[in-house]
């Protein structure tokens, strides 16, 4: 079987982490780079990724995440937070970064900047916030795949109270909103879930070829 598919079959949403096992600095850098290289609409990456290592902060977050033990037992906790009311500043910063990265005059990118703004800034704020929140799921996907390659377990979580996590981490003041949590580490040998057979739809049920 293809190694990628083998790793996808290996991974699962870990229910119990081994708190004694910590992700190495080198592996964490690889995971961060995988997140950084993730695709996003227009390449804008309208979000921040908060890595919570502080055990006191994680203990505060746990009740807001339905008391899930992974929050405090995993090696690392990652919070994906979308930018709220994303607009001119974020787009202008992206155009500036593109100019510097590709060594092209910023003036030559103004047409593209106007195109992006015409598609985004015309949206109501609520729709823009929904759009930026969806971008975080693309980054999570890259994290899941990269971690599986390294045999690092990741549990993605939507089960938390975003307003409470925002308050604990001070995200509101940064113009951010927590959309996803992901706990990273190594499965505990007592986690029975790792032995369950993966349940997915069959090809016939899932795919439609037109």
CATH topology group of the domain at 3-85 and 136-187: NADH Oxidase
Distance between the termini: 27 Å
> Briefly, what CATH class of the domain at 3-85 and 136-187?
Alpha Beta
| CATH homologous superfamily assignment of the domain at 3-85 and 136-187 | NADH Oxidase
Determine the strand fraction and express it as a percent band.
Answer: 5-15%
CATH architecture of the domain at 3-85 and 136-187: 3-Layer(aba) Sandwich
Explain what this protein looks like in three dimensions:
- The chain is α+β, with helices and mostly antiparallel strands.
- It has a domain at 3-85 and 136-187: NADH Oxidase (3-Layer(aba) Sandwich), CATH 3.40.109.
- It has helices spanning 3-10, 25-36, 55-61, 70-73, 88-102, 110-120, 125-149, 162-169, 203-206; strands at residues 47-52, 76-83, 153-157, 176-185.
- A four-stranded antiparallel beta sheet has the order 1-2-4-3, with helices on both faces.
- Helix 2 (25-36) packs across helix 7.
- It is globular.
- It comes from Flavobacterium fryxellicola.
- This is NAD(P)H-dependent oxidoreductase.
- Its cofactor is FMN.
- GO terms for molecular function: oxidoreductase activity.
